[in-house]
Specification:
about 350 residues, alpha+beta, Aminopeptidase, 2 domains, BioF2-like_GNAT_dom, transferase, GNAT family N-acetyltransferase, cell wall biogenesis/degradation
């Protein structure tokens, strides 16, 4: 009655299951799993007749050992399904967990971790299967509302500043030429230097070109121009229902004028035009109003979503051994897995 299988990114069935899901994001696709990490990615699939649940995870070696753990790609991931509410029977979910455990134990996998998607109600999958920890809030614009209702949620100062940007001659357009893309990448790097970002965020120029020209989801680079020059820009992805704000940057000379506000406003209009349901802006660093990035995004909507993560210790004995071997001092820390802290 039930079945279980594990797919890698080269298996066409991965993409078929993505396309059959009720709702998904670009973070779930095999393309993103190939481009975003150098480790092996796996899709754990449980099937109950015509219904399925699938969890994409990345297999990482644990340095200095013959052990491994599982994590998610950067962004908003977690399980997908063709069922809106993941309302599977307890028997099926127990079967899925048993099969998952058996694979992990056989392959020396100690723990599993996933960042969950703030727009998808995935929590029921993990009942009795590890812990779900609620973290920060994210911000989403409800594109099913009328344009007027969406704009009513804008902070008053946002409305004024967006109008002023248009009056001053700022325009937003889709970047399509290689020159425009290259200019945006330079602005993105400049932004990463300004915020002292970790090396992880310095994606190669090839990454940007591949991302904007892949076959598994749509993506657009929207740029703000002033006097013909690009001064800010952001990549937006578009899947079945979700428009996602991905990578962005603004030049130092124009950062005080915040042309990114105009970019986001135009992205919202594009999302409506394409018939999407959400423009997900993501969260900030800490997800509170004191966080400047969160405050910037919350100026566009008060539709806050809950971001959460899944933590699961598959092998408690080996997990505890790794924690001791790595001399972890704060064993009460929320960091997971502790041995990587």
């Amino acid at each position: 009655m039930y079945s279980f299988e594990i797919l890698d990114v080269g298996n066409p069935r991965w993409e078929e299951l993505i396309n059959a899901s009720y709702i998904y994001d670009f973070h779930h696709t095999p393309f993103y799993h190939r481009i975003d990490n150098s480790y092996k990615s796996l899709l754990f699939v449980g099937q109950d007749k015509t219904d399925f649940v699938a969890i994409p995870l990345v297999l990482r070696p644990i340095e200095g050992t013959e052990l491994f753990d599982l994590t998610s790609v950067y962004g908003y991931c977690g399980p997908i399904s063709n069922r809106l509410d993941f309302s599977f029977s307890d028997g099926f979910l127990a079967f899925f967990k048993d099969k998952f455990d058996a694979y992990c134990l056989k392959n020396n996998i100690v723990s599993a971790f996933s960042r969950l998607h703030a727009l998808i109600d995935q929590h029921t999958v993990f009942a009795g299967f590890g812990d779900v920890q609620l973290l920060n809030k994210t911000i989403s614009i409800d594109l099913t509302l009328s344009l007027e209702e969406q704009r009513k949620q804008y902070r008053k100062s946002n409305k004024s500043e967006i109008n002023q940007l248009r009056k001053k001659g700022f325009v937003v357009e889709e970047a399509k030429s290689s020159g425009d893309i290259e200019q945006f990448v330079d602005i993105y790097y400049e932004t990463m230097r300004r915020v002292d970002a970790s090396p992880y965020y310095y994606f190669t120029k090839e990454y940007f070109n591949e991302f904007l020209d892949n076959s598994q989801f749509k993506s657009k680079l929207l740029v703000a121009k002033y006097d013909g020059q690009i001064v800010a820009g952001a990549i937006f992805t578009m899947t079945d229902k979700i428009m996602q704000y991905h990578l962005a940057g603004t030049t130092e000379d124009f950062i005080r004028l915040t042309p990114m506000k105009l970019v986001l406003d135009e992205a919202r209009l594009l999302g409506n035009e394409l018939g999407l349901e959400y423009l997900h802006l993501g969260g900030g660093v800490g997800g509170s109003d004191e966080d400047s990035l969160f405050r910037f995004k919350s100026g566009f909507s008060k539709d806050f979503k809950q971001f959460a993560v899944w933590k699961y210790i598959v092998d408690p004995v080996k997990y505890g051994m790794l924690v001791e071997q790595n001399n972890v001092k704060d064993k009460e820390s929320c960091f997971f897995p502790l041995y990587r802290s």
